[in-house]
Amino acid sequence: MSVSGFPSEQKGRQQLGSILLEQGKITKKQLEDALKIQKEKGGRLGWLLLSLGYISRLDLFAALARHFSLTFVLYSPELVNLIDARLTAKLNISEINTYHVIPISFKDGVLKVATDYPNHPDTDEFCRQRFHAKKIEYILVTDLDLMKLVQKIYGQELIDQSINGLFYRNPQESAYSVFTKRQVVFLAFFFYLSLAWFYYDATSFLITVFSFCQLVFFVTVSYKLVLSLAGARHEQRHIVTKDEVEALDDKTLPVYTVLVPVYKEPEVIHVLVDSLKKMDYPQGKLDIILLLEEDDRMTLEAAKKASPPGNWRFIIVPDALPKTKPKACNYGVFFSRGELLTIYDAEDIPETDQLKKAVVGFQKHGESCACLQAALNYFNANENIITKLFTLEYSYWFDYLLPGLDRFQLPIPLGGTSNHFRVKILKDLGAWDPYNVTEDADLGIRACANGYKVGIINSTTFEEANSRYGNWLRQRSRWIKGYMQTFLVYNRHPIKMLRTIGIVNWLSFQLFIGGAPLLFLVTPIAWAIFIYWLFTHSTSLDPFFPPLVLYIGLFNLLIGNFMGIYLNMLAVYRRGMFQLLPSALLNPLYWLLGHSVSAYKALWQLFSKPFYWEKTEHGISKIKT
């Protein structure tokens, strides 16, 4: 089905292009341009004219009404009042989006319906079977007005499903409850035993705690080193080549939905509009949805001023808690028209061939692949020391660590943008969890837990690195809190999880999702002990550090921190960003003053306000694209 929802022009009817020419809506040259694109790339003529900006949406639907000899009406309270609620109660939102139809009235065997897709090949049969209608009478509305009708009629159901859909599907996979009763009992019992142990034998207790901290540091850093070296050596399992992209036939490409969730970001909207206009993908097969919050008029006005093409739709997400990005994305999925779907943030600049690479990537990975993650990097890497360290971390993460996970086929926590989904699988998984503040990482793990694969593609999206410390801390503490939530969710039934995904995947999950926050939390303790000894040369700590623990601690201090610096240095080579090499020496401070501070803030918020979404401010960089 075409993204536009417009049928092929039928014989015996005046051609759509001729109608628009006759009405003076387009020139002959514009019609010729659109027909040339249609011949080369496929798609519907009306939608091509709209996406090229040659005609308005109202012009197109008015011409379609004349082409199909239908009554064309606009959204109004009067139209809403005509709709029989008993009829709409017989349809769900998925059926309306599939068949592009909303029933209005039913009398004497005649069913009157509103549609934005006249003569849809399956609508007649569906309506006759569902309503036992003898005749279907169509009224034409625009695709945006059909969407407004759906929001008006099914508004409460839409927002409820966007917030609680995953919880209804499987409460055990939702972070709606931070801790389960079992986890609360376990933690209470654990702390009780710890206090009792400390009371009766403080020395052995502290030796065990220090040993555990050093062991966590050693194992986690060593594991990431192994993954990174594998990623450096092998890159990834399925490289998409330029020849494979060029071999794609534009006429057979699937419709691609692009979700763009934004909130109070009017200053960066133009960046994404310009970027998506340059995408090497047929505009007639791009379904771009800008998701705006109800109380964010500034961004809506900025989006209108950016004059996006006609294949963009603005969807206003009703104001409801939690006010999070995953809730907005879930709301947008209800209205998506694509077979494939991706998410971009407002400041993103994806490489122009990324969507086509994703199409090829899905073909290579097979039907069990739920998602492909593109790499993220920054266009303002050299702005200040924070952006340099941030860029080193992202380059290491996406260019080495994730390829290492991909090479060993281990669970991959997704990034917050440029992840590409099969829409059917995304819906089967329950989409995003609005109660998890790192919804992307959670979804990557959930895909693995449900037997699906997550892969990566060799394409990059450039975005703005945080250039202010406070802004960076807000973003990082949210990510770490989300990792903590994800760790708790998938350890509600650890034995069941182990049996489902296997011992290797299970251990990788524990080290990657659980080990990272724990590593950040224990780092200041290790440094504090070292600095205390360095300045005092005190022997008071000797009883708590037997030789084996001391040797592991010394190894972590010297070799562990060196490996952290080395991994950050390694990050520059694949992208040739050698000017960032000196900044890698500051990696221990980056961990201590950045990750560790954020981790303690995240731990506090996990108990005090677990669902609070700390907003990251964008558009503050002095470097503009």
Question: Can you describe this structure in just a few lines?
Answer:
This protein is of the alpha/beta class and 625 residues long.
Features:
single chain, disordered N terminus, GMP Synthetase, Chain A, domain 3, alpha/beta, 24 helices, 12 strands
SSE topology:
Elements: H1 16-22, H2 28-41, H3 45-51, H4 57-68, E1 71-72, H5 77-82, H6 85-88, H7 93-99, E2 101-107, E3 110-115, H8 123-131, E4 135-140, H9 143-169, H10 181-200, H11 202-234, H12 242-246, E5 256-262, H13 269-277, E6 286-293, H14 297-305, E7 312-317, H15 325-333, E8 340-343, E9 349-350, H16 354-365, E10 369-378, H17 385-407, E11 419-422, H18 423-428, H19 439-449, E12 453-463, H20 469-489, H21 494-501, H22 503-536, H23 547-570, H24 587-608
Parallel strand pairs: 1-4, 3-4, 5-6, 5-8, 6-7, 10-12
Antiparallel strand pairs: 2-3, 8-11, 9-12, 10-11
Helix pairs in contact: 9-15, 10-11, 11-17, 11-22, 11-23, 17-23, 19-20, 20-22, 20-24, 21-22, 22-24
Explain what this protein looks like in three dimensions.
The protein is of the alpha/beta class and 625 residues long. Among the domains are: 16-69; 72-167, Type II secretion system, protein E, N-terminal domain (GMP Synthetase, Chain A, domain 3), CATH 3.30.300.160. The protein has 24 helices and twelve strands. The strands form two sheets. The chain has an eight-stranded mixed beta sheet, sandwiched between helices. A four-stranded mixed beta sheet has the order 1-4-3-2, sandwiched between helices. α17 packs across α23 and α21 (494-501) crosses α22. The two termini are 36 Å apart.
